[in-house]
Design a protein that fits this description.
With 201 residues, this protein is an alpha+beta fold. It has a single domain (12-200), classed as 2-Layer Sandwich (archaeoglobus fulgidus dsm 4304 fold), CATH 3.30.2170. Helix content is 26%, strand content 29%. It has helices at 58-70, 95-103, 162-171, 180-200, and strands spanning 12-21, 24-33, 39-48, 79-82, 107-111, 129-134, 137-143, 152-158. It has an 8-stranded mixed sheet, sandwiched between helices. Strand 4, helix 2 and strand 5 form a beta-alpha-beta unit. The longest helix has 21 residues, at 180-200. The protein starts with 11 loop residues before the first strand and ends with a helix.
Length: 201
């Protein structure tokens, strides 16, 4: 459901990212205070994974471990930011949507590259964005999130509309390409990945 159905006011937003250590998925969830973006909770979840990588089908590979991970988050974030696509997907159901529907949570997809859709031109000014459309329908936004960096692709996952998705993601930026909750989760997932790989060497 790509319309605003999340709880208000927003107090906590949780960033979610995933790394792989051989056959194990390492999911990091970091819940932050929405106003300050300071972390208030960190969770790491690992599980073996067997579904192969197939472009456009990440929801089947990464969705199950992400859902398990976010169910362990205790702060009850109003929004989960997933490092994946949401509505900006050929069938309007990227991993962020898959996770949101499966877990019954409000999710927003934030991706570093385009999977589908067109836009007129890349935004040039910081925090500027342009609509991303697919088959004549607005599916998200192309956001200039950092100086000198490539844009990010933001789209609703579940229980959030396009405009609110952009607004929330922009509110979570602190000078980096990725919004702060996802950036922190990305770093944590890779730290845990290195620990696992180090233990196997």
């Amino acid at each position: 459901m790509f319309e605003d159905r999340f709880r208000l006011p927003i107090r906590h937003v949780c960033g979610v990212d995933l790394a792989f250590a051989e056959d194990r998925a390492v999911v990091a969830c970091i819940s932050v205070d929405y106003q300050s973006q300071n972390p208030v909770e960190k969770r790491v979840h690992t599980r073996k994974i067997s579904f192969p990588y197939i472009r456009g089908f990440l929801g089947f590979r990464e969705g199950p471990p992400i859902v398990e991970a976010i169910r362990k988050v205790k702060t009850r974030p109003e929004i989960f930011l997933i490092n994946a696509h949401g509505m900006a997907h050929p069938v309007h159901c990227g991993c962020a949507t898959h996770v949101g529907v499966s877990a019954g949570k409000a999710t927003i997809g934030v991706a570093g590259s385009r999977l589908c859709g067109v836009y007129q031109a890349e935004p040039q000014k910081l925090n500027e964005w342009v609509p991303l459309t697919y088959m004549g329908k607005a599916v998200g936004g192309v956001v200039k999130s950092s100086e000198g960096g490539k844009p990010i692709f933001v789209s609703p996952g579940h229980l959030v509309g396009v405009d609110s998705s952009i607004k929330i993601v922009l509110a979570c930026h602190r000078g980096h390409r990725l919004p702060e909750p996802i950036r922190l989760a990305h770093n944590l997932a890779n730290e845990e990945k290195r620990k696992l790989e180090g233990g196997n060497s």
